[in-house]
Design a protein that fits this description.
The chain is mostly helical. The protein has helices spanning 2-15, 27-38, 50-64, 67-71, 85-93, 101-111. It has 2 domains: 2-71, no CATH class; 76-112. The protein starts with a helix and ends in a 14-residue tail after the last helix. The radius of gyration is 21 Å and the shape is elongated. The chain contains 6 helices and no strands. It is found in: Mitochondrion matrix, Mitochondrion nucleoid. This is Mitochondrial nucleoid factor 1. Keywords: Mitochondrion, Mitochondrion nucleoid, Transit peptide. InterPro entries: UQCC2 (IPR037698). It comes from Monopterus albus.
Amino acid sequence: MSATRYRQFLKLCEQWPRDETKKGRDLGMFLRQRVASAFREGENTQISDPEKCDQMYESLARINSNIYRQRFPRVRDTSFTGVTVEECRLILSGKMDEEKKGLWKTLMNRFSKSPEDVPEKACEK
């Protein structure tokens, strides 16, 4: 039975997209590492909790197949910041040139609060 689970996870890892712009932060790479460590003996690995393993696989498979994106479609492809998907990818990649860093600074100024901006809480007794 663990051989079937192992093959399911391998197939899921093959299907999971890689994002080369997120070196060291890519969910696909993390998933591959976790599968490799969980199934160290390959198909011969003994699984201590098969139900939990199956639940984890089903959850990851649903995420990978975009079930929730289809079930709950977005009205726009922007976030509350108004940043587009491409701009968000650029910011998260860490590979912004000098002219694009203005966008990052604008966002940081817009959503970061200084200590003066946060109201003090009254002491409760």
